# Entry
Amino acid sequence: MARVTVEDCVDKVDNRFELVLLASHRARQISQGQPITVDRDNDKNPVVALREIADETLSPGDLKEDLIHSLQKHVEVDEPEPAPQQATTEPRGITGQVASTNADGEEEPISFDRMSEEELLSGIEGLVPPEKTDDY
# Structure
């Protein structure tokens, strides 16, 4: 069979550098035992890979996806988020102990995780910005 040239493949893969990456990845696949889609004709693996790309027996997009997947070290898996836990009816403090007394002398538990949006906004509005200095 006639020799395959880069010009035969450039119209399938626009970028020559990407073509080199795809062909080398495919040549490694062939050397690891993947079946080839064209006749070998006593050619080496890189030439077979280029011939496969030139003859369009393999999709460059599929090769690119496979190359990216082979280079990934961590593959994100979408896992379902745990169901939200039901809030307890008893307010808790940091230690669960009573820390303050009200006007009647009764002890009230401190609750840090129960704040309305209005209380949060009023607390933020009451903050004073730090004075500007030459340090920053």
Summary: The two ends are 71 Å apart (CA to CA). The beta strands are 98-101, 107-109. The longest helix spans residues 16-31.
